[in-house]
């Protein structure tokens, strides 16, 4: 029997035109954006792989749900629908909606962290760590060493190293560790999963010491799929069952609904402890809005409730990660150094390996993301030293071992043909990698600098030298 190709489990009902720009135009746009892809206009981007956050295509069912928005200030029926879905799918009895994930991180950090506390986690995430620091805490990375090695093929690079966790707890005392923050999957490690067995071990370690376990559930559905595929004994379970098993091991979760849950805005804090939830409900009115809307419209709550149900459908999650795998395979075939194994939401280019001629102090990943845009109009995101920012105590640049560029795949937005164009664009840039120049800051904001910083090329006028011959790369059509 001949093989059958894989295909997306949806058909397209509404389209949004996108346009290719010329190399000259892109150079002007890049200069105006200070070589920061966050500062480019979307309309100047051809294929937008900046992020999978809030960029999903909603389904016809979600759009229908938007028309069912109950826009009452208090007690909207959409809130109660979302509460019912979160209880059923994630298992947290207490739901506090927030405008997005960092709203939940803000509330949680303010509630649980006292100045001088220590918060261990399986690698930092930008907004999560900043809220921990603003609350007076210090973040400690307790992820396994393999997570910092782009070439390690470990199937669960998101795992917590129990020995590192234990050493920290012994050093500072359990009473100074309010919770362990466990992300599933781990974004900055390359979208890598944590195993169910490892999370169970973390929970068993924490419970007798009175340390809470808080899940960053932003991409926990994707994590559940990896568990189903890779963890011994999990093949026979559904993604929904595994997701629930993950959450059952934790005391609560912060959630950005803008990823797994297939919505353009929304998040929540889920808790088991009713007393803590009452405090969170009191705090949410200060920063987000009443506890039955949390900064969202009723229609947004409804779209998220429906999106959560769709997110755990097996067909959906298989094709979502399948598309990311496809791009990863194409890049591997082209010899491009990427983080292995390929993660759930993105393919991460190893900028340090690709651009050894650019020192870390000239931000190779920032330069690579800018050069990719100049080459092809594909927009990606730096995930290296610029994202890591400065140490709040010393003011020094933090240089994480991973210096990466993230090609992040929005859900249900692009087709396999788009992935082919992306793979060809990166492969072409890879061939010309010695023509990429480093960058220096021209403006550096205080918080989360990667969003708004601007740069200039070091020792050159452009971040990527122009080719001698025609530099316009029109899509190649076979003409009869
Ligand atoms: N992640 C991302 O592109 C949005 C912008 S930050 C560069 O990956 C995790 C694991 C995230 C995340 C956002 C948040 C914050 C928390 N945890 O963006 O506030 O990946 O909804 O969520 C982004 P919000």
Description:
The protein is built from 17 helices and 14 strands. It has 480 residues and is α/β, with parallel strands linked by helices. The protein has a 5-stranded mixed sheet with strand order 2-8-7-6-5, sandwiched between helices. Strands 9-12-11 form a 3-stranded antiparallel sheet. The longest helix has 20 residues, at 314-333. 50% of the residues are buried. The mean pLDDT is 96. The structure holds ligand PM9. Ligand PM9 binds at residues 51, 53, 100-102, 125-128, 183, 187, 216, 218, 256, 258, 267.
**What spatial form do the alpha-carbon principal axes imply?**
globular
Ends apart, CA distance between termini: 31 Å
Indicate the CATH architecture of the largest domain.
3-Layer(aba) Sandwich
Strand order in space, largest sheet: 2-8-7-6-5
Number of helices: 17
Global mean pLDDT: 96
- Per CATH, the superfamily of the largest domain is Type I PLP-dependent aspartate aminotransferase-like (Major domain)
- Which percent range describes the beta-strand content? 5-15%
Please indicate the count of domains. Answer: 2
């Amino acid at each position: 029997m001949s093989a059958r190709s894989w295909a997306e489990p949806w058909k397209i009902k509404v389209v949004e035109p996108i346009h290719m720009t010329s190399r000259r135009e892109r150079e002007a746009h890049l200069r105006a954006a200070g070589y920061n892809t966050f500062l480019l206009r979307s309309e100047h981007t051809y294929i937008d792989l900046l992020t999978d956050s809030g960029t999903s295509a909603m389904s016809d069912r979600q759009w229908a749900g938007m028309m069912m928005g109950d826009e009452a200030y208090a007690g909207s029926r959409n809130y109660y629908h979302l509460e019912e879905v979160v209880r059923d799918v994630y298992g947290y009895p207490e739901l506090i909606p927030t405008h997005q994930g960092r709203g939940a991180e803000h509330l949680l950090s303010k509630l649980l962290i006292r100045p001088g506390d220590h918060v261990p986690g399986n690698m930092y995430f930008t907004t999560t760590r900043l809220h921990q620091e603003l609350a007076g805490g210090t973040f400690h990375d307790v992820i396994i060493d393999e997570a910092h090695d782009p070439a390690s093929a470990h199937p669960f690079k998101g795992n917590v190293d129990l020995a590192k966790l234990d050493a920290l707890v012994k050093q500072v005392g359990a009473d100074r560790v309010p919770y362990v923050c466990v992300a599933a999957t781990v974004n900055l490690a390359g979208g890598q999963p944590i195993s169910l067995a490892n999370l169970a071990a973390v929970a068993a370690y924490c419970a007798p010491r009175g340390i809470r376990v808080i899940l960053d559930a932003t991409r926990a559905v994707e994590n559940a799929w990896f568990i189903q595929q890779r963890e011994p004994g999990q093949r026979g379970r559904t993604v929904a069952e595994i997701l629930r098993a993950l959450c059952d091991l934790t005391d609560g979760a912060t959630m950005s609904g803008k990823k797994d849950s297939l919505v353009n805005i929304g998040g929540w804090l889920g808790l088991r402890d009713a007393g803590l939830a009452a405090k969170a409900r009191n705090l949410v009115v200060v920063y987000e809005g009443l506890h039955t809307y949390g900064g969202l419209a009723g229609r947004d709550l409804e779209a998220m409730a429906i999106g959560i149900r769709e997110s755990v459908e097996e067909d959906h999650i298989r094709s979502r990660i399948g598309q990311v795998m496809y791009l990863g395979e194409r890049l591997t075939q082209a010899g491009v150094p990427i983080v292995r194994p390929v993660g759930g939401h993105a393919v991460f280019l190893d900028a340090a390996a690709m651009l050894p001629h650019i020192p870390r102090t000239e931000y190779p990943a920032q330069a690579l993301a800018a050069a990719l845009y100049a080459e092809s109009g594909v927009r990606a995101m730096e995930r290296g030293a610029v994202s890591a920012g400065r140490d709040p105590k010393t003011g020094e640049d933090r240089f994480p071992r991973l210096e990466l560029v993230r090609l992040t795949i929005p859900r249900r937005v692009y087709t396999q043909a788009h992935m082919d164009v992306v793979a060809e664009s990166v492969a072409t840039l890879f061939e010309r990698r010695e023509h990429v120049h480093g960058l220096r800051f021209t403006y550096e904001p205080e918080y989360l600098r990667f969003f708004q910083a601007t740069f200039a090329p070091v020792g050159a006028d452009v971040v990527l030298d122009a080719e001698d011959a025609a530099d316009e790369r029109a899509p190649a059509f076979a003409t009869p």
